[in-house]
Design brief:
This protein is an alpha/beta fold. The chain folds into 2 domains: 151 residues, Periplasmic binding protein-like II (D-Maltodextrin-Binding Protein, domain 2, 3-Layer(aba) Sandwich), CATH 3.40.190.10; 134 residues, D-Maltodextrin-Binding Protein, domain 2, CATH 3.40.190.10. Helix content is 29%, strand content 19%. The strands form 2 sheets. Strands 1, 2, 3, 4, 6, 7, 8, 9 and 11 form a 9-stranded mixed beta sheet that branches. The protein has a two-stranded parallel ribbon with strand order 5-10. β1, α2 and β2 form a beta-alpha-beta unit. It is globular. It starts with a helix and ends in a 5-residue tail after the last helix. The N terminus is likely disordered.
């Protein structure tokens, strides 16, 4: 594990930040929400509790967890699963049990979310993933945005209808679960339409829904022909499993370039920022100090696939 090396490099800054943390009575600070950022926030939470502010209890609940708890609190079981679910849980919480939500999408203007403040954690990208041809898949290494849109409108239904694709096997469309920020971003910023709306395009069935960023959630029989949105950061954290401890859910899926640009490259259509959000009114300075500290931990973020 590389945590020790990263922690040593950040020790001086962490100690300085601790001096700014109020020394009030011990409290619990908990976050819920995004699957995409849960792993890096778990690592950052553990580091902060160890080296910066051990006085308080710091908890980051995994998306959809049925086993993790917030001391002294009762939350939904399973826990909020995804950015939108986490934000909604934060807004609905009147007990002070949920302090912040992890979000892989921006806050939506003109909604109740205007009562929240977002702290940018880092940069990420959303591409589509498929099994490469060298591993028996049918997708090309590069795909055009127009062809992705046509696939999710069922205007292209076979991989040999895509430049560089092989096989006349039907393309199997996958989409993240409801409440996912990655799903929301993919629909609004990449596709530009909702593929679950059967009034859009030629589809007669909706895409199959699976837990986001899980190649191994795709049915085995579908894997050579499947396409699904995937976070570059999540894919990287899984690829770095030996250092991050994150289970490798990729199942051979690789990220495709779009319009000739690799995920994260300049001008890539799926580039995005990810956030932690909290209630603006009455914001606890101890919480805000933690979220700002997390945003500054670039070595941690890079290991988990996020840019500064």
């Amino acid at each position: 594990m590389m945590f020790g090396k990263i922690a040593t490099a950040a020790a001086a800054a962490a100690a300085a930040l601790f001096m700014a943390v109020p020394s009030a009575n011990a409290a619990t600070y908990a976050g819920v929400g995004s699957d995409t950022t849960q792993d890096v926030m778990r690592a950052l939470t553990e580091e902060y509790a160890t080296t910066v502010n051990p006085t308080n209890t710091w908890v980051s609940i995994d998306a959809g967890s049925t086993t993790q708890t917030i001391p002294g609190c009762t939350i939904s079981n399973p826990a909020p699963n995804g950015s939108s679910a986490g934000i909604n849980a934060l807004l609905a919480d009147s007990t002070g049990c949920i302090d912040y939500a992890r979000s892989s999408r921006p806050l939506k203007t003109g909604t109740e979310q205007s009562t929240l403040t977002a702290v940018r954690l880092g940069g990420d990208s959303v591409s589509v993933a498929a099994l490469p041809q060298a591993a028996g898949g049918h997708a090309p290494a590069n795909i055009s945005l127009a062809d992705i849109q046509k696939i999710y409108k069922c205007e292209i239904t076979n991989w040999n209808g895509v430049a560089g694709g092989t096989s006349s096997d039907p393309i199997v469309r996958y989409l993240p679960q409801a409440g996912s920020g990655t799903r929301d971003f993919f629909i609004t910023s990449v596709l530009g339409f909702d593929p679950t709306d059967l009034n859009t395009g030629n589809c007669t069935t909706q895409p199959t829904l699976v837990q986001e960023n899980r190649g191994d959630a795709v049915a085995t029989a579908d894997r050579d022909s499947a396409i699904l949105p995937y976070s570059k950061a999540a894919w990287t954290a899984q690829a770095n499993s030996g250092d991050t401890g994150v289970p490798d859910h990729r199942a051979g899926f690789v990220l495709l370039n779009i319009n000739g640009t690799a995920p994260g490259g300049t001008g890539f259509v799926g580039n995005r920022d990810v956030y932690n959000v909290y209630k603006t009114a009455g914001a606890d300075p101890t919480l805000v100090a933690f979220l700002n500290w997390a945003a500054a931990q670039n070595d941690f973020k890079a290991l988990y696939g996020f840019t500064a």
